[in-house]
Amino acid sequence: MKYAFITSLRDEYGVRKLCRVLQVSASSYYAWNMRPLSQSRQSDEQLLVEIKRIHEESKNTYGSEKTWKALTIQGIACGKHKVARLRRLNGIESKRRRRFKVTTGSKTTKAIAPNHLNQCFYVCRPNQVWVGDVTFIATRAGWLYLAILLDLYARKIVGWSMSKNNNTQLVLNALDMTLLRRRPRAEVLHHTDRGSTYGSDEYQTKLFTHGLKPSMSRKGNCYDNAVAESFFSTIKNELIFDKSFVTREDVRKEIFEYIEIFYNRQRLHQTLNYQTPEQAEKMMVAA
Predict the structure, then answer these.
(1) Residue 106 domain-assigned?
(2) What are 161-218's pLDDT values in tens digits?
(3) Position 136 in a domain
(4) Burial (0-12, 13-18, 19+ Cβ within 10 Å), 63
(5) What are all long-range contacts of 26-29, with beta carbons under 8 Å and residues at least 24 apart?
(6) What's the distance, CA 147 to chain centroid?
(7) Domain span at residue 228?
(8) Are 69 and 83 in contact (CB under 8 A)?
(9) Is this prediction's pTM over 0.90?
(10) Could you tell me where the beta strands, DSSP code E, fall in 172-218?
């Protein structure tokens, strides 16, 4: 175990220094390192390659449990504890999650809808409830605002829009994308906070025209829209916090790839029994 630990850190600290700290001789380590790999070590080395691949594909966001689930789904037989051990010995860590603060700060609208959702975040079919919100991302050129609509059934982002202005057009563009993609055949509950853009006459008219029932969070209660807030926490932890964006166009490209390719189609969700939103919806249609 000590020799394996030295191997995992030798490029960073050097073999002799690690041997002194662990009180083993360098000659013994080199002798161990020259031995042919045992079947167990060969298996570990092969599994480590797959672990590193999953780590990269997940944008360094998966912990040991999700890595193990992803490997199992892909038909790679391995133990959960072995995955955790190999990650630990090789310094493979997921990005540390930071506490997310609600940052929209929109002015309260006069057109306040009742809170019909009432924190019922689990639904039985797609196009039953859409939740929406707006956040902002800093660039050297100024703020970029992101509006999203998320289908509660599979936690899938079904509509989004980005702009340098936080205005009604921003949220209308996200709604238009959602309507074009989803084409709901029955009434959909549409839940947001009390932001003035969501309460504008133009936005409310479009909701009414397309048979969407407005619902709004209680004043100052971010838990009423917790799933949308959770998505913003996820994207900021996994994409935004460790990067510096020069232009708005830089962050636009990153967000597009994150939502459409990674989040909706590749990222495993614990609340979906370790499926992606796309997989969860397809299983619903197949059933």
Answers:
(1) no
(2) 999 999 999 999 999 999 999 999 999 999 999 999 999 999 999 999 999 999 999 9
(3) yes
(4) middle
(5) 29/3
(6) 16
(7) 129-286
(8) no
(9) no
(10) 188-192, 212-216
